[in-house]
Every structure is written in structure tokens, then in C-alpha cells.
Amino acid sequence: MDRPVISNGEWENNRPTAVILGARLYPDGSLSAAMRRRVDFACHLYHRGVVSRLLMTGGPTSAVCTEAEKMAAHAREQGLPDDHLLIESQAMTTRDNARLACNLLLQARIPKTKDITEQTDHSSLNSTPPPSSPQTVLIVTDLYHAPRAWLVFRIIGRHSGLRFKIRPCLPPTATMRRAGYWVATLREIPAIALDMIRSWSVPTPRPTPDRRSL
15-109+132-213 sits in which CATH class? Predict the structure, then answer.
């Protein structure tokens, strides 16, 4: 069966966006191992052509800068172009990550006035309507955090028209042997129960005007 030929722009629009969930920064503003691991994995997906852009979400857990800004700087070092990076620098919880990231993605889907005018001007030349398939979002976080993150995004973004998939990144074997990793894993058990309850009261994501595209 012949595959349909699509333009580079159409291919990019059909590839998902990777949403990288932040982790705490060190006091001096440097990346923690978990944060570096998540960004490196998302950049790997980007360079393989799996995703079209990266959305960094994470607030000010250091006096120096926000998690999202630090992650974006690290992504640039990995060769990510500025126009394929989005920053959300207010989220302080996984619920915030989901709500604010969805807001940002919904805002990014709204066509600019110029685009609307161009579509109207060329309507007689091309009557094919734009694709209405839901936008896919790849959630990138650590393996132990993945179940809770996926549930929170699914609950909070249930009316957003977005489709969520999880792509956890595996830590090195040495990290998984450390007690701290398993303590963090065990903490996820009560956190999942709490967030499943709290997420239902989060306002429905809506486009927000304070989007920043780097």
C-alpha cells in the first residue's frame, strides 16, 4: 500500500509534543540528576524525530532560576532550537504541571490573526478542512513518577481535547540500587491516592495569554 505524501510542516504538526516534568534544583541552581536525566531523554526523542518540540514545566525551586528555565538551557546545549522550546515556569506540583502545560498547549493551537486571514484568502483554492485529530502529548518523567503523572494529566486534561501518553526515562542501574530511589518510589503510593482526589477539583485547562516561546 502506498503511503500518502505529506509536507514537512504537516509531519511536524502530527508529531507529539514532549512535556518534561521538572524536578528540584540544587540550591546553587544546578540540575539534579533526575532533571538532567529527563531533559536528556526528551532531547534524544527530539533528535530521533519522535517529537516535534519540548515543553518544560517547573517553577522556582531555587533562588537562582526556575526549573523550566534551567531545563530549557540544558536542552539548548543538546542542540534544541529556540523555536522548538516552550517554557512554563510557575508549576510547583504535578497538578500544576498538568493544568499549566495543557493551558500552554491549547494556547499554542489557536491560529494567529494573520494565519486566519491567509486561510480565508485561499479558501477558494483549497477547501480541505484542517485535520481535527487530537494533539498527542508525551509526558516525560521518571519511572517511579510516571503512573501518578499520567493519571493527573488524564484527569485534569479530560476535556482539553489532548491525548496523553507516558514515556518514562529509566535511571542508571546504580541509581536504582540506592535507598533514596526506592524511598521516592514508596512515597508515590499515598501521593497517587491524594492526587487522584485533588485533581478532580482542578479548573478545566483553558488557553492562557502568558505563553512564552523561546
Answer: alpha beta
